[in-house]
Amino acid sequence: MLREAVSSEAGAGAGAFEPVDPYSIILNGTERVVEGSWIGESLLYVLRERMGLPGSKNACEQGECGSCSVMLDGEVVCACCVLAVDAADSEVTTVEGLNASGLVDDIQSCFVEAGAVQCGFCTPGLVVAVHDLLGRRPDAGSLEVREALSGNLCRCTGYGRILEAVRLVQEKREDG
Amino acid sequence: MRVARPRTISEALSALDDNPGSQLLAGGTDFCVEVNYGHRRPEGVVCLRRVAELRDFEVGEGKVRIGAGTTYTEMVKRLSGVLPALAAAARTVGSPQIRNAGTLGGNVATASPAGDTLPLLAALDAEVVLVSSKARRVVPLNELITGVKTTTIGPGEMVAEVVVPRISGPQHFLKVGTRNAMVISIASAAVVVDLQAQVVRCGLGSVGPVPIRASRAEEMISEAIDWDDLSAPRAALERFGDLAAEAARPITDHRSTADYRKRAVAVIAARAMRRSLTRVT
Ligand SMILES: Cc1cc2nc3c(=O)[nH]c(=O)nc-3n(C[C@H](O)[C@H](O)[C@H](O)COP(=O)(O)OP(=O)(O)OC[C@H]3O[C@@H](n4cnc5c(N)ncnc54)[C@H](O)[C@@H]3O)c2cc1C
Ligand code: FES
Ligand code: FES
Question: Could you tell me the domains of chain B?
Fold first, then answer.
């Protein structure tokens, strides 16, 4: 909806070349303006270095580890593989914005409860990936969960407790 | 440095014309990694993500047209009925995050030997539709991809869609790598059985600079198959794998040795073939 509105306002010049910035991103529900940036900045860089949102982690910058996972227009992607200028006028939700109230959500608390957090570096990316999965497939079976989390690397836990955390979220949500 | 965010193909093409040095950006999964690692420094970018036309796909009587902007996630969702091997290949790409962003057009334009859609597209003699503000041309995939990451896509041109024949019969894609997920192919193979024409088509990936057709394997197995019940003798299946390996021209690199690639491609080509049959005699 938001994007439609933006496009019709843009009018005749839509699609033509524009200066790199300013542009705005609808970040965790709030419109934020990016200024003074370089064309090649990744969304991950802009989130961490310009928007003050360090929840999305930077580990590989090549899409391999998933620690920078964010939702872009409702789909989970690696923020390091999104050119920030291409996120203009789009909705980006980071781990900081998953719960509108700003409190810890059920996925986060189940990670803690299951002991799925050791060094914690992979946790934000995993929380976003689990949020995406359970939003689409609340009843996902264990194979589906593994496949959905296959792009998120964890060097500490061995994954057992992460899978346990997902099961716990499913259980609690089912109980209401 | 400027950015264009077109919503139609014609807007995208006129943006490319206005700023000839600018680069096309689709899902960014190849593009951004190159920028992050300093291998690419864009002066101007034409973002294609908003061009809805590029995401169209059309299943016609004889042909299937797939928009260049179709993501892997969409291929899995929308094409598993009509092009099961393409959906299977798409399902093996990267992770959900990568599949949500990466596109067919980006895979074709990158033209990596390990591009997972390419073996099937080669097997199907896919045609790539290139458009520019001046012309539209249709180029067979084997003329488009001329070497490792090199194509005949000209300045001002972009991939609009990929067109493949609609073929009825089983098809399978298999790849080998170090993990089940998030893995670049060490070897890959696509097999398409055309029940009507009674021929088998087989494309190989990651075992040469460009996708390879295993023509001798195709001819041999097409003769050996009993088309009445879609069965073939075990010896013919083994021969199919051997002939596929003979067609391969692999190299040794950091992912694998050439010898392993040859062996692996023989095994997966034969396995994809076996899965396409109803029975082995
Ligand atoms: C972590 C990770 C895992 C991956 N795993 C796999 C895998 O398993 N298998 C695989 O095959 N690939 C894999 N890739 C590579 C990549 O995801 C694919 O090649 C993907 O299809 C690229 O598409 P894109 O839309 O992201 O292209 P982009 O990165 O946006 O662009 C790639 C190139 O294509 C050009 N381009 C894009 N669209 C067009 C167009 N319409 N016309 C002309 N030129 C165009 C761009 O200018 C650029 O040069 C992986 C990448 C990452 C980061
Ligand atoms: S930092 Fe983005 S996937 Fe690793
Ligand atoms: S908890 Fe340390 S990387 Fe996952």
Answer: 2-47+55-165 (3.30.465.10), 171-280 (3.30.390.50)
Interface test with A, best of B13, B41, B50, B95 (most A CBs within 10 A): B95
Say yes or no for a CB contact (<8 Å) between A150 and B11: no
Residue to mutate, A64, A65, A119, A126, ligand 3, most ligand atoms under 8 Å from C-beta? A119
Distance CA B235, CA A64 (A): 41
Q: What does each C-alpha distance from B275 to A48, A107, B153, B172, B230 come to in angstroms?
A: 48, 40, 36, 7, 11
Q: Which of A54, A76, A97 is the last residue of a domain?
A: A97
Ligand 3 neighbour A65 (Cβ under 6 A): no
Looking at the 3D structure of chain A, how many domains does it have?
2
Final residue of a structural domain among A62, A97, A132: A97
Q: Which domain holds residue A56?
A: 17-97
Cβ count within 10 A of residue B33: 20
With a 6 A CB cut-off, is A99 part of the ligand 3 pocket?
A: no
Mean pLDDT for back-to-back runs of 10 residues, chain B (281 residues) = 94 93 96 97 96 95 96 97 97 97 98 98 98 97 98 96 97 94 94 98 98 98 98 98 98 95 98 97 94
Chain A residue numbers with beta carbons less than 8 Å from the beta carbon of B31 are 83
Pocket test for ligand 3, best of A156, A162, A163 (most atoms within 8 A of CB): A156
pLDDT digits (tens, 9 = 90+) for B170-202: 999 999 998 888 889 999 999 999 999 999 999
What is the pTM (predicted TM-score) of this model? 0.95
Handedness of CA A155, A161, A167, A172 (dihedral sign): negative
The answer as to whether A150 is a domain residue is yes
Q: Which of B139, B264, B256, B265 is nearest to B213 (CA)?
A: B265
Residues B108-119: tens digit of each pLDDT: 999 999 999 999
Q: What CATH number did the domain enclosing A133 receive? A: 1.10.150.120
